[in-house]
Amino acid sequence: MTDTPLPRILCVDDEPNVLSAMERNLGADFDVVVANGGEAALDAIRWQEPFAVIMSDMRMPGMDGATFLAKARELSPDSVRLLLTGQADLESSIAAINKGAIFRYLCKPCPKDELSATLADAVGQYRLLRAEKELLETTVSASVKTLTEVLAMVAPWAFQRSTFAQSCVRHALPKLEWPDGWIYNVAAALSQIGCVGIPAEVVQADAAHRNLDPEQRELLRSHPEVACRLVERIPRMETVARIIRYQHSAAPADEALEVIRGSQLLRAALELERHATRENGLERPWEILRALKPAIPDYIIKALSDLRAGVAGRRAARVSELMPGWVVEEDIRTTNGLMVLTKGHELTETAIAALHRLLAAHAIREPIRVSSRTGEEAAAPSG
């Protein structure tokens, strides 16, 4: 039987003798990693395996515990944070709690039994957070997939926009290295859910920069708010809802970091979609994004600057060649005219299996126009 690995904890202090004592006293129950100061600890978070708990001293030269824990939260939001300090400074303690969102505050010197018990509680909190997150990433994502498939049937033009936005997000996230990537993917998938009541001709007129009457402009202006109200009713989807809310405008400075940067990425993706539907396409995506107002951060523009190759991979494919993740480039109908999949639908294993059955029954015809919008060319299988 394989032994369960010890929970990984990161202990941060500027005194080597304190770190050595922590290794001796805690090593039997935890996989202890020590770091001399905030910068060394941030490097450990960036390059090592995830930590269940991050515990920091408050008073350290160069970077105090409050500042370090705030930075650690950005790099590893799932890690539970503890502050261990000899200061009786209430103001500094409040700063650490607010900036670093710490789980518990301990005063030095802290008895070994109390410290071990607190670390065990923190590990339990970490495992609870991870279990909840895994539930969100599986159950909620599956539910979102169902909602988007319904959107594809009710408003295929809105589904096409959200599918393109998802492709942009998936293209950018590996370069951005943001934690909790599912948040931004789900926000893109549900970004157009508020458009269900908007006539297709209004959206098409807006995309073509034709004049709209005041009522039509109000329909387009209000759809992110409608979507936000719908999505925020789903448990644990509040951040996703706020990202959707600000898909066409700058999020307020006091919003959560995930909302600010998620809405910027979504706004960039939707702007690229508007240009992709025009004749000139996406020859220079960086120029399109740099012209956006309010401005998009350069690091997001850079992450999307090579998107054109992913959008250009269009081809005619046989059903036997289809792969999950490819995008349908034309409506697929049965031989008697019934709609099967709309243009813009991202193929899943379920959808491909259904196409195989229809082909076997001679209900659809080959080839099918598809593309890969994830940064990879839709190349034919070898052989």
Automatic annotation (TrEMBL):
Coiled coil (UniProt feature): none
Response regulatory domain boundaries: 8-123
Keywords assigned by UniProt, alphabetized: Phosphoprotein
Residues with the 4-aspartylphosphate modification: 57
Keyword Phosphoprotein: yes
CDD domains recorded: REC_HupR-like (cd17569)
One Pfam family of this chain: HD_5
Gene Ontology biological process terms, A to Z: phosphorelay signal transduction system
InterPro entries cross-referenced by the UniProt entry: CheY-like_superfamily, Cyclic_di-GMP/3'3'-cGAMP_PDE, Sig_transdc_resp-reg_receiver
Name of the featured protein: Response regulator
Taxonomy of the source species: Bacteria, Pseudomonadati, Pseudomonadota, Betaproteobacteria, Rhodocyclales
